[in-house]
Design brief:
By secondary structure, the chain is α+β, with helices and mostly antiparallel strands. Helix content is 69%, strand content 12%. Strands 2-4-5-7-6 form a five-stranded mixed sheet, with helices on one face. Strand 6 and strand 7 form a beta hairpin. 21% of the residues are buried.
Length: 385
């Protein structure tokens, strides 16, 4: 029963004020009654009635102090002290006059104005105590509110850190899946078979070249960390290591066209982003086509966004089922983009003219230097917090 009451009073400031008013003046009434009892030895109903009426008048006389103090609360200390002093003097005088009049009415005698000074000093003490308690509760409430805000900020930061840890864990999982795509058995087996065929044909130089290319590609693939982003220039370097092996395998059956905007090379992209797209294109547009096919990679800077496009000339397909029919590679790319950028990205599949598939990506443009500055700024904010 007590806890719901405390919660309700904490949530409603007006209710808390009137609750404190009633409890405070009830306490004053009890204290005054006990004091008179100890001094006079006995108390008649006239004194009891006067005490009760004085408490009611006290509630009415102190209630206007609240809006006055609220109005000046944001002012300077000098203003608050001046207003509080004037208010205590004036409202104490008002309460004193009312108490003397009520006492005279209860006693049926003329007002005791000669004793007004004695009554007034008592009123000053009561109203000064009321003012001190009001400001004390006010400042305590402010400190409690600030402490609650601080706790909420700490909780939010912890939640944000947990989300970051979860995102890093997801990124590590994505890295494992991406390495699976890079080191897929069919790619390694096909490359090794091609090397074996070259050796049997006596083309040792070409076989050695493919072995060197495969070694470079594997070192580069295992060195990359999917948790980190890389520049598009670095991503293209990774792709070219892979494509050089495929060109050595398919020779004239693979045609490659690059249209890379130099302004986009310093843009940051998720590591290993384009690899699954290129592998899908190699499988469906080159490997399974007797005449081979063409791959096109395009990058553009569009205002504050980076546009990437991979096009192949493989067989056409229904766009509704393109992502499913091309395996888990494209789905993984979509999932990574959604996890990293939320709604600030687009991933689209479209038909190429006359045949083939176009994969287009649009993500926020973040240059390598801008990302470093942003990270330093974020670290500074957390350090100050």
């Amino acid at each position: 029963m007590i806890r719901p009451l405390v919660a309700a009073l904490h949530a409603d400031r007006d209710a808390r004020f009137w609750f404190c008013q009633l409890i405070g003046w009830l306490g004053w009434s009890v204290g005054t009654f006990l004091t008179i009892t100890l001094v006079d030895g006995n108390v008649d109903w006239i004194h009891v009635g006067h005490i009760a009426m004085s408490a009611v008048l006290g509630v009415l006389a102190t209630s206007p102090l609240r809006p006055i103090y609220q109005f000046t609360f944001e002012s300077g200390l000098g203003t608050r002290l001046s207003v509080a002093a004037i208010s205590v003097i004036l409202f104490s005088a008002l309460w004193t006059v009312l108490r003397i009049q009520v006492f005279a009415w209860f006693m049926g005698e003329p007002p005791l104005w000669k004793e007004a000074n004695y009554w007034y000093f008592g009123s000053l003490f009561v109203f000064l105590s009321w003012t001190v308690l009001y400001y004390g509760i006010k400042y305590y409430d402010m400190l409690t509110t600030e402490h609650q805000k601080l706790l909420e900020e700490v909780a939010d930061k912890r939640a944000e850190q947990m989300l970051r840890f979860r995102a890093e864990a997801d990124a590590h999982e994505a890295q494992m899946r991406m390495l699976h795509y890079q080191l897929a058995p069919h790619f390694l087996f096909n490359t090794l078979n091609a090397i074996n065929a070259l050796v049997r044909l006596g083309e040792v130089a070409r076989a050695q070249e493919m072995i060197q290319l495969l070694g470079d590609f594997l070192r580069h693939a295992l060195k990359q960390d999917a948790v980190e982003s890389v520049t598009l220039d670095y991503e293209m370097e990774s792709l070219m290591l892979y494509l050089n092996i495929e060109k050595a395998r398919f020779e004239d059956r693979l045609s490659l066209r690059l249209d890379i905007d130099p302004a986009s090379l310093n843009a940051k992209v998720p590591a290993l982003l384009l690899q699954p797209i290129i592998e899908n294109a190699m499988k469906y547009a080159v490997s399974e086509c007797e005449d081979g096919g063409e791959l096109s990679i395009v990058s553009r800077v569009q205002e504050e966004q980076l546009y990437l496009e991979v096009t192949d000339t493989g067989p056409g397909m229904e766009m509704d089922s393109a992502e499913d029919s091309r395996g888990i590679g494209l789905r993984n790319v979509r999932e990574r983009l959604e996890a990293l950028y939320g709604e600030n990205q687009t991933f689209k599949l479209g038909a190429n003219d006359p045949t083939g598939l176009t994969v287009s990506i649009l993500i926020p443009l973040i240059l390598a230097g801008d990302e470093l500055a942003g990270a330093q700024a974020e670290e500074a904010v957390f350090a100050q917090a």
